[in-house]
Amino acid sequence: MQGAIPVKIHEPYERIIGFIEGDTFKKKVKRSVHFHERFNAYAIQKSIIRTLQKHNVKYVEVVEVDTGNTYRTLLSNYLKHAFEYDFGYGPQLFLHIKFFEPINKYEQMRLFE
Hints:
globular, single chain, 9 strands
């Protein structure tokens, strides 16, 4: 990930939650931990939106490290359809999985051939 820009949050403690690579914000997650079954959605922290916009991010990608699946959506689509909820760690924006486009993992592997 050389040249990638780390994206940090500060609540409840400072940590890197993903990286901006070109025009894409990529967040690696474990589906078994981070997918919100109740909402059928993935979330990003509301506090990073300005950072993403400042760096002209066009896409949001969620990479499931435990399944190998990747989901992608336009940031504008994310902001249009997401809803806000706070579990006590700062407001998050949740986007239902139906608004993401699955990226075939075999298609991704061809990029490295």
